[in-house]
Amino acid sequence: MSTAHLPRTEAEQLSGNPAQRVEARHQQGAEDASREVLQLLAPDGGRRQNSTFSPFAEALSSAQLRQFYRDMALARRFDQEATALQRQGELAMWVPMVGQEAAQVGSGRASRPEDYLFPTYREHAVAMTRGVNPSQLLGLFRGVSHGGWDPRQNNFHLYTLVLAAQTLHAVGYAMGVQRDRAAGLTESPAVLAYFGDGSSSEGDVHESMVFAASFQAPVVFFCQNNRWAISVPFSVQSRVPLAQRAAGYGFPGLRVDGNDVLAVYAASQWALEHARSGAGPVLIEAETYRLGAHTTADDPSKYRGSDEEEQWRLRDPLLRLETLLRAEGHADDAFFDDLGQEGDQLASDVRREVLAMVNPDLRASFANVYAQQHPLIAEELAWLEEYEAGFVTEGE
Ligand SMILES: Cc1ncc(C[n+]2csc(CCOP(=O)(O)OP(=O)(O)O)c2C)c(N)n1
To answer: In terms of DSSP H, where are the helices of 288-389?
Structure first.
């Protein structure tokens, strides 16, 4: 049927372009919902009040506030060094997280040592709050390791490159925790699963949320909405803020200013306590921004404007915490100067440790496939050895 003679609505008459009308509706919706974003530390460095969440932030000591800043500053310095290493050909690729420090440090610091965290591949600052040596994060990107650290040492799982797969692992783990608790084997750990706005479109996220809700699993889904899934903007991933999706599964969703470390910490503490208490899952959407490229193989100027980046630079999570620390007298120039030196020392340690990494013995991979000897593996190993013996070595 042709629509040429159908009566046009008032909105259609105002704007002949359907795409523009949809975009206008989205923007209106986003503006309305933005009033509900939890913020406890405004971009100007001033505190904001919220009856539920402020108590978590107000309980923080001077030392803890300084620790948050230190975590963010060292993670940023580490990230810059890793980018430099990649540019010098020492890493095959790097996944920068500059801009997302508050979302990562606030949530990481809210977790307890007994909690178990499942990252994607950009959670370097979270890893550092859990005590993972930053150099170990680089083995994967240098190509000398399939992982780089022992997840059980810090209850921080290996990076997952298959988007959203770890949300299923996290829920399975949380269901295991639930059973351990029922059997009196553990106290009450919670599970934290990280994923991005693009990953929210994966079926795995939907399945994991259905299972988590059905089984009341003690898991917190933590989405860093950094606005871009490589070159695809958030507006393509969802018609509503992601936090609103939680209602459809039947658990709470919190929408948080992801560049506000106090709000992220408070929301994460609240959510982890909720999960630990047996009340079931929570979804946190931390609204933040990836200031750099998706990876060092990507050029964001091809798909987004520098004006957008500039707007987000004004919301830098480090600057606003620095303003608070100085205004409330928690830190002075000496603190920031010392931290600068500590960052340079960290960067030089990381560089030294990365350059000293040795290539793994390929044979070790064959030893880890099955718990016991398997004829197929033995056959493949024999083939490899014969193949390598076929090369003439230098000097022969
Ligand atoms: C299952 C799967 N599909 C596609 C990809 C390719 N891919 C890698 S990163 C990425 C975008 C991810 O965006 P988001 O989840 O928002 O996380 P971000 O990288 O922005 O932190 C895509 C599509 C992948 N790694 N895994």
So the answer is: 306-313, 317-327, 333-355, 362-367, 375-389
For 121, counting Cβ atoms within 10 Å of its Cβ (0-12 exposed, 13-18 middle, 19+ buried), the class is buried
Ligand 1 centroid to Cα of residue 198, in Å, is 6
pLDDT tens-digit readout, 157-208: 999 999 999 999 999 999 999 999 999 988 889 999 999 999 999 999 999 9
Going by the DSSP 8-state scheme, the letter that residue 285 receives in this structure is E
Cβ 232 under 6 angstroms from ligand 1: no
Residue tagged active-site, from 77, 142, 255, 290: 290
Distance 204 CA to ligand 1 centre (A): 13
pLDDT tens profile 46-69 = 999 999 999 999 999 999 999 999
Cβ-count burial 374-391 (b if 16+ within 10 Å, e if not): eeebeeebeeeeeeeeee
Q: Among all chains, which residue has been given the structure tokens 């859990």?
A: 130
User: Residue 230: what pLDDT?
Assistant: 97
Q: What is the pLDDT of residues 84-134, one digit of tens each?
A: 999 999 999 999 999 999 999 999 999 999 999 999 999 999 999 999 999
Q: Which domains does the chain have, with CATH numbers?
A: 28-356 (3.40.50.970), 361-388 (no CATH)
Instruction: Determine how many CB atoms are found less than 10 A away from the CB of residue 279.
Output: 14
The number of angstroms, rounded, from the C-alpha of 239 to the middle of its chain's C-alpha atoms is 22
Q: In this structure, which amino acid lies at residue 76? A: R
Respond yes or no: is residue 124 known to be catalytic: no
What is the separation of C-alpha 338 from the centre of its chain, rounded to a whole number of angstroms? Answer: 28
Please give the model's pTM, rounded to 2 decimal places: 0.89
Q: Is 14 in the pocket of ligand 1 (CB under 6 A)?
A: no
Treating both helix axes as pointing N-terminal to C-terminal, what angle do 101-110 and 62-87 enclose, rounded to 10 degrees? Answer: 130
Torsion on CA atoms 307, 308, 314, 319, rounded to nearest 10: -120
CA-angle at 318, arms to 314 and 324, nearest 5°: 95
| C-alpha to C-alpha distance for 227 and 304, rounded to whole angstroms | 11
Q: Catalytic annotation on 179?
A: no
Please report where in the chains the tokens 């178990």 appear, as a residue.
116
Write the residue with the smallest CA distance to atom 5 of ligand 1: 163
